[in-house]
Write a structure and sequence with these properties.
heterodimer, A: alpha+beta, 4-stranded mixed beta sheet, 4-stranded antiparallel beta sheet, 11 helices, globular, B: alpha+beta, 12 helices, about 45% helix
Amino acid sequence: MNFELSEDQRMIVDAAVGFVRKQSPVTRMRKLRDDDRGWSPDTWRQMGELGWLGLPFPESIGGFGGSLVDVALVLEQLGTTLVPEPMASSLTAGMTILRAGDEAQHKAWLAPMIEGKASLALAWAERESRYDATKVATSAERIRAGYRLSGHKQFVLDGHAASQLVVSARCDGAVALFVIDATTPGVRVRPLRTLDGRRAAAIDFEDVVFGDDRRLGREGATALAYALDVGAALACAEGVGIMRAVLAMTTEYLRTREQFGVKIGSFQVLQHRAVDMFVELELAYSMALAAAIQVDQPATVSAAKAQLAESGRFVTQQAIQLHGGIGITDEHDVGLYFKRMHALNAMYGDAEYHIARFATLVQSTR
Amino acid sequence: MDLAYSAEHTAFRAEVRAFIAGAMPPHLRAKADIDAHFEHHEVMEWHRILHAKGWVAPHWPVEHGGPGLDATQRFILGEELELANAPQLSPFGLSMVGPAIIEFGTPEQKARFLPKILAGDEVWCQGYSEPNAGSDLASLRTRAIADGDDLLVTGQKTWTTHAQYADWIFCLVRTDPDAKKQSGISFLLIDLKSPGATVKPFLTIGGTPAFCETWFDNVRVPRANLVGQLHGGWTVAKALLGHERTLIAAVGHIGRALRTCRRIAAAQGLTDPAFTAKIARLAIRHRSLEMTNLRSLASAQLGRAPGPESSILKIRGAELLQQCYELAMELMGHDSLAWFPEPGIVPPIESAIAPAFCYLRATTIYGGSNEIQKNIIAKHLLRLA
């Protein structure tokens, strides 16, 4: 049992702290809300140079040979200033390729992302699927030397700018995963805005034809389930960063705002609310660590994601409440965090989904 | 980073589990299985069993009879005892006055008191709270006036848990009425058989006589029974609060309560997804607390003082324990109405839940209420005042 950062991890965290302070304060995200892409390719390349995009990937393809914990440590920091680059979504898609793909596929699609020259997206959610990744209407049929795929995916996170899409489809009765170039004829990517000022895509696939070498492994359901757990674990890490930021912001406000001739932080009811926020943050942080360390254990990931939902919702809602009226203005940052927290809660399985999954998994082992 | 226990610690857990399974007499086991209330003599019976094994005071230094376990082993031992629902030993001698004497006591006090605490030959209780000194403990009024080599103690203490079984009580008493609140208080050991000391138990809402009121009417106590400096009692009391808190979260107890909930749900034939989700939600909160406790434990293992995460353990552990028993009662439906029922009225697993549900309302009050804990966190960690 050990929760200490290694020397490497300490350096990674320091670099991320420096980055969010000096280069990516919330004002940058605010500006990029109105940008078509919503994030900066220059910054993405810089993240590649910093080594962040290669953290969990093997050195043979230019990665760092680290673990998901390393990624989580960075994302926690990026969460503190709502850095909009698609690190979590792109690495989640990347981890799917790493898990299910072969060496040639790793080289072809992971290497460019690791360098920050391209980004990836995971296209799994459909209109009818809700959070069940095995409910797939998109279908692929085998044709000579390849496949033909048709269907519709939505809420493909950061899918509007991804060069390669990891797509789930029903093939020969089972779930299969394919990596499809976004510029392939028959792929129609429609960008859509999400409530947190970011972008996702609705993507139509109409008789999209591609080669055999774009299928990831033989069996897709396990790899996809793993990918969604990676996404959930990373959402937990980012959510902890959000909670840290809004708790700091809120206690600072309580220390400076005056009403009735005193600092409002002298009121016990507000002090106790702030402590309740602190308690939730600590619990969610513990679980975010657990999820990153044990991402291969679905019960841990589900517990973490459900805890994130409960804690994150409480902390961001109370942050607004304690700021009073200015908390609901677009001008104040606290609302941006609140909205991003909702987005994190809604992706890769919401609280109800994960509570139910946890119940099934834990019951089956007792 | 790594969540797994080392091979040594895993082996130690197995050793503890095997010991408990082998050492717990059948009549205690039968009660443990259904969460029943242990009588005082049963608690002391288990005390002596643990003492014989050398595990009765895991956190005491070896020179005073501790077993020399590391922080993680101490936690594992405590957690396994909770999971097995072994009788919970009285903390007043082993965890409070014992450590106070070890840290502040004279060589004579150590020789006189520590061996009897370990052996269970003398039982202790705590005299802190008074009718008008609860959360505001420093306003206590029980006074001790110097009289030659003795102190004469007069006043009333309340919530003196298990005083009816105790031989000794450690008290905070006011020795300097003119000094500021905290600075006029001393830490005093009083023999409850002394003339002028009166103990009267009262029932809790759980139907058991856990608490007492204790009166002192000019009770004569030798000065040699002062622990620490005269007027320095607050320092002694505060030092006790700074000790490790990895067992304060009651992670094992909550885990057992959740297991009880599942067993009750099975006994009731409940398959309603709403109940399943309720149990799962509490189990997730439990896991979050457990993981936070592990962070605290890993830090204690490295010899560090309790960090910010440890301050939330008491608050959340106390709440969660209450939530578990609340859910257990809900799962029981009509059965939750039965109060100390005759055998056969309700399934055995349910028979002792209602008193525990009632009594455990105390967890958010004792040891510094949750509100007091929050005041402390607000002031010291969040710097709000």
